[in-house]
Design a protein that fits this description.
- The chain has 298 residues and is an alpha/beta fold.
- It has 13 helices and seven strands.
- Helix 4 (58-71) crosses helix 10 (229-243) and helix 8 (171-184) runs parallel beside helix 9 (198-211).
- The chain is globular, with a radius of gyration of 21 Å.
- The structure holds guanosine-5'-triphosphate and magnesium ion (MG).
- Guanosine-5'-triphosphate binds next to helix 4 and helix 5.
């Protein structure tokens, strides 16, 4: 498949052209590497990662954020990434319902990506697809992903701004994972702030966010009622300005480069196959782990 005509159409914001290019990148089809190499420099389009536990209200928030940006005359691209999981189908259906107003809107492009990684986490080419969308004169790229296991850490490595969405009943959860959360979050959202126990939780999170030394904003929202959306967009905008600092940019680009190279180097390796090979050989008297791995290190 020749990628150029599709890319030219994508640059004109032709929806089918965009879809074809994403499919090309997703499948590592012929031409996808050339397409990525042709992306223009720039990279000033903020990629906003929205992560958090299942059902926290990420899609509802995304829906309202799209509305906020569209009203401001902006073009918005949204990637909904589902780690392979039991709630996969339900989540995709949920997204369709939650964001249904926007699927045909001329300023909005929405695409769902299913993760095919056996270990959960993000779809392997989320980074490249986000970069591609960012090159297409969208003003904002939003990536929604369910925070389970690896995926919220992965999203932090590829988004410019990571928004962690929590709900008041997440109390115990943040106790155990607060260190990790503080590291990846640029903005905290306490959604479903209409719940009776919301205030205690917000105060608790605020003191943790303050103690983190990063001065992380904590925004309270009731996504279903569109409350707090303007404040969230403002907090994202503020964080985005800080990301323009060259030192931050250097770190993020290095993370991305590192990740792409790691993925390329590990590409032909299967841990399951490795386990099979080890299972066959480990009981031999002459088994040696370091000689075993020689076959993978060239
Ligand atoms: N009471 C209340 N309910 C909300 C609020 N925001 C979202 N909900 C509801 O919570 C449910 C889950 O919302 P979603 O937006 O689908 O949550 P999600 O985080 O995208 O869910 P997954 O993608 O499946 O992880 C829906 O029934 C929403 O209507 C809120 O602020 N208050
Ligand atoms: Mg969702």
């Amino acid at each position: 498949m020749h990628w150029k005509p599709y890319y030219d159409r994508a640059k004109q914001h032709d929806v089918r052209g965009i879809a074809r290019c994403i499919t090309l990148i997703e499948n590592e089809a012929e031409g996808s590497a050339d397409l990525l190499r042709a992306l223009p420099a720039g990279g000033t389009v903020p990629v906003i990662g929205i992560t958090g536990p299942p059902g926290a209200g990420k899609s509802t928030l995304t829906d309202k954020l799209i509305g906020h940006y569209v009203e401001a005359g902006k073009r918005v691209a949204v990637l909904c990434v589902d780690p392979s999981s039991p709630f996969h189908l339900g989540a995709l259906l949920g997204d369709r319902i939650r964001m249904s107003d926007w699927y045909t809107h001329p300023q909005v492009y929405i695409r769902s990506l299913a993760s095919r990684g056996a270990l959960g986490g993000l779809h392997p080419h989320t980074l490249e697809i986000a970069d591609f969308l960012g090159s297409l004169a969208f003003d904002v790229v939003i990536i929604e992903t369910v925070g389970v296991g690896q995926s919220e850490i992965e999203i932090a490595g590829l988004a410019d701004i990571t928004v962690v969405v929590l709900v008041p009943e997440a109390g115990d959860e943040i106790q155990t994972m607060k260190a990790g959360l503080m590291e990846i979050a640029d903005v905290f959202v306490v959604n479903k702030a209409d719940r009776p126990d919301a205030l205690t939780f917000i105060h608790h999170l605020e003191s943790l966010a303050h103690a983190s030394g990063k001065n992380l904003p904590v925004i309270r929202t009731v996504a279903t009622e569109k409350q707090g959306i303007g404040e969230l967009a403002a907090a994202i905008g503020q964080q985005q300005q800080q990301q323009q600092i060259p030192a931050r940019k250097k770190i993020l680009l290095t993370e991305k480069a590192w990740r792409l190279i790691t993925e390329a180097r590990m590409k032909d390796l299967s841990k399951a196959d490795m386990a099979d090979a080890i299972g066959l050989q480990m009981n031999r008297n002459d088994f040696n782990l370091y000689r075993f791995i020689d076959q993978y290190n060239h």
